[in-house]
Design a protein that fits this description.
Blueprint lengths: L14 E2 L2 E2 L2 E3 L8 E4 L5 E8 L2 E8 L2 E8 L2 E3 L9 E16 L7 E15 L6 E9 L2 E8 L7 E7 L2 E4 L4 E4 L13 E4 L15 E4 L5 E7 L7 E5 L4 E6 L8 E4 L2 E2 L2 E7 L2 H5 L3 H4 L15 E6 L1 H5 L14 H14 L3 E4 L28 H10 L3 E7 L4 H17 L4 E5 L7 E4 L5 E5 L4 H16 L3 E4 L15 E4 L19 H4 L4 H4 L26 H10 L4 E3 L4 H4 L5 H6 L4 E10 L3 E8 L5 E7 L4 E6 L9 E8 L12 E8 L4 E6 L4 E8 L11 H4 L3
The structure holds 1-deoxynojirimycin and calcium ion.
1-deoxynojirimycin binds next to loops.
């Protein structure tokens, strides 16, 4: 037995192979609670009971980050588990390992934390037990509830998880609203968090990123969302945010039995916004790879029959403009083979797209191609050229129809050699029909409640059994499960490029300068960059993409995804010198560094290719022009490199002259400070590779590499 002291430093932690042995410590609890610090000592988390009511608090370098905040549950047919509690035992532990991502934004990730586990038990009635686990890292913390198997709590229904986040002020926040028709697909609003307390406001999704008056950056999210409802946040008095779980149609939030544990509630804390991007806390709080051999999981770029539907050149359904015909798909396969893209996505290939498919998702067959799409012939044609089709399962949010076909659907693709599937769940608001075994409608579910969390996971696990990688649109938000299931490659879950195709307001220039600090903190995003024909007047005269051309290139680096699309029509790439950057840019990285970071203004990210010595830089701005000084200190000292620069032209402007681009080379080294000039709504993309000494202008290389 050892006394729990105020600082971890007084504990004896025995390190063994980088992992310490558990040191069991039993209270007496100090009056001011049990404390645990991050390995560097800066972040301190305190757990306390106030008259039997559990609270936690977080400070950093002595400043409040989270003031005392309540913890607990309200159940449907049982007393709440949030009071009359006593500490039975608490344990401190410490962990330090470095693990390798099979693919990712960095290769090696250090998972280094101090852990506090507190076993609680009720002091009245038929006592129930609950364990709280806190893991404190240098870049933030996670905590979760565990409800162990016990006599007095077996099956349970959670009506409310009472986790609070009592902020130290009305921080500036970047948020998207929860409980809306378009799921996560909203423009971010910047406002003080006090806005969330306005009557009738439905709350926000996570990750919720905030900047404090003291200049700290915080992001609240969750990790390892498994068999539970997703957490949204609502405001209350005093800048306290409350966990609000997305309910089932019957109002219950979570249906489970003990033993059960919640996802980790996470708070990332950084001194500058860029450090949020290079925080891997969410991944660290997920379980290691369960799939063992993942040699079949391969990041890659793809093209596809997709943008054409969104701008109106093609249709998904059968028509004289049907996109997914055998002939047209061969054209895309030829293009992919010519330029070395491993994947060709084809949407609209299967029966079910006729009529209002968003309303009639039950019509979809995932094993019946349309008559004008010879999938056997096309798979063989692609394979002969070293390309694979990327499959597509649009469900129209008819989840039960999809689940009934799930095994057949994946077996069908596997047998054709298709190793990547994009799924989709277009359906509005609380509109997912749940039926009983007799087919009667039981309820309408949200995309983000426990029912769908279970469904999305079932699809990941099923796909894994068939050795298929996934790209999920209209997904559940990412909470890092790609660590456990590395076939869960990328997903949507925000407003992507498609919003620029439909002729509406599109995504304003600022949107992509917010995404890296919000949506992308959760994980990879299939944004589908690379539109060159920014006006597509031939197909939709009133549409346009609200960026410069150089910014489209920069997005390949700024927005991380292991599957990135060259989204435009092949004919818009042929002969264009800027296409070289899309051909060169990798999707699997050794390292990532954030060079500039102002949320909603501009961001510059440098990433090192995992398979070469090359570095890539992507820099983007909002509607304002910028000049950003960019030291290349990350390059190896003493080595000369060639920078292939794709910059906004002198007159470039997203509104008036977005296509103006300058492409040129410069010799650089680790002492070089590049001056990046970004046009209004613009960007810059740079490939940096070791110099061989005999460089002439190598940028127009496309014809050299193309094998026609
Ligand atoms: C919405 C997806 O985001 C988009 O990529 C897809 O083309 C359509 N649904 C049709 O499935
Ligand atoms: Ca979508």
């Amino acid at each position: 037995m050892c006394h729990v002291s105020n600082t971890l430093s007084r504990l004896v932690l025995v390190a063994l192979c980088g992992v310490s042995l558990l040191v069991a410590c039993v209270a007496p609890v100090p009056d001011d609670g049990i404390h645990i610090s991050s390995p560097d000592g800066k972040i301190q988390v305190t757990f306390m009971l106030n008259d039997g009511v559990p609270y936690y608090a977080v400070s950093r370098s002595g400043q409040d980050v989270i003031k005392p905040s309540r913890l607990g549950f309200v159940f449907k047919e049982a007393e709440p588990l949030n009071q009359n509690l006593a500490i039975v035992e608490s344990r401190l532990d410490s962990f330090d390992e470095t693990w390798t991502q099979p693919w990712g934004e960095v290769k090696e990730i250090r998972n280094h934390y101090n852990e506090l586990e507190i076993d609680l038990e009720e002091t009245t009635g038929a006592p129930r037990k609950m364990t709280l686990v806190f893991r404190v890292y240098n870049d933030g913390l996670g905590f979760r509830y565990e409800l162990p198997a016990q006599d007095n709590l077996s099956d349970f229904e959670i009506m409310d998880e009472e986790t609070e986040f009592a902020l130290s002020g009305s921080h500036k926040a970047w948020w998207i609203p929860a409980y809306r028709d378009n799921r996560y697909e909203y423009l971010y609003t910047e406002s003080p968090v006090s806005f969330f307390s306005i009557k009738g406001f439905s709350g926000v999704h996570t990750p919720l990123t905030m900047e404090t008056a003291d200049g700290l950056f915080l992001s609240i999210h969750e990790a390892n969302l498994t068999d539970y409802a997703s957490m949204t946040l609502v405001g209350s008095d005093d800048n306290t945010l409350l966990c609000d779980l997305v309910p089932w149609s019957d109002g219950v939030k979570v249906k489970a039995s003990t033993p059960h544990q919640t996802p980790w509630r996470t708070i990332q804390i950084a001194e500058n916004a860029g450090d949020l991007i290079t925080s891997y806390l969410i991944l660290n709080l997920n379980e290691p790879n369960k799939l063992e051999d993942v040699s079949w999981v391969k990041p890659g770029k793809y093209v596809g029959i997709w943008w054409g539907m969104h701008i109106g050149k093609y249709t998904w359904n059968l028509s004289d403009k049907h996109g997914a015909t055998t002939e047209n798909t061969k054209r895309y396969i030829d293009f992919a083979a010519k330029y070395g893209f491993p994947g060709v996505l084809v949407e609209g290939w299967n029966v079910g797209w006729h009529g209002e498919w968003t309303e009639h998702g039950y019509q979809f067959s995932f094993t019946t191609p349309y008559d004008d799409f010879d999938i056997e012939e096309l798979s063989a044609y692609a394979a002969a050229k070293g390309v694979a089709l990327i499959g597509h399962h649009e469900t129209g949010a008819a989840v039960m129809n999809y689940e009934q076909q799930l095994e057949d659907a994946f077996a069908f693709y596997r047998d054709l050699g298709i190793n990547t599937v994009k799924t989709g769940y277009v359906g509005w608001g609380q509109g997912i029909k749940r039926r009983d075994d007799a087919g009667n409608l039981v309820g309408l579910e949200w995309h983000h409640g426990q029912y769908m969390v279970r469904h999305y996971r079932k699809v990941v696990e099923t796909a894994a059994r068939y050795h298929i990688m996934l790209d999920v649109h209209e997904p559940i938000k990412d909470t890092g499960i790609r660590r456990t299931y590395p076939n869960m490659m990328t997903r949507e879950g925000a407003r992507g490029q498609e919003y620029n195709a439909w002729g509406g307001e599109g995504n304003p220039p600022e949107h992509t300068t917010i995404l890296p600090f919000t949506r992308n903190l959760a994980g990879p995003f299939d944004f589908t960059p690379g539109i060159f024909d920014l006006f597509f007047e031939k197909y939709r005269p009133h549409g346009r993409v609200n960026t410069t051309l150089a910014k489209q290139l920069a997005l390949y680096v700024v927005i991380y995804s292991p599957l990135h699309m060259a989204a435009d029509l092949p004919e818009n790439y042929e002969g264009h010198p800027a296409f070289q950057f899309i051909l060169d840019v990798p999707v699997d990285w050794q390292d990532t560094k954030v060079l500039h970071a102002e949320i909603g203004d501009y961001v510059t990210i440098a990433r090192q290719d995992r398979n070469s010595e090359d570095w890539y830089i992507g820099s983007i701005t909002d509607e304002n022009e910028r000049t950003l000084e960019t030291p290349l200190t990350f390059l190896e000292a003493g080595q000369k490199y060639v920078a292939e620069i794709y910059a906004d032209g002198a007159d470039a402007d997203w509104e008036s002259d977005p296509l103006s681009i300058d492409i040129y080379e410069a010799v650089v080294d680790s002492d070089t400070v590049l001056t990046l000039r970004l046009a209004p709504g613009g960007g810059q993309a740079i490939r940096i590779h070791p110099a061989t000494g005999d460089e002439v202008n190598h940028i127009p290389r496309i014809d050299e590499s193309a094998n026609e």
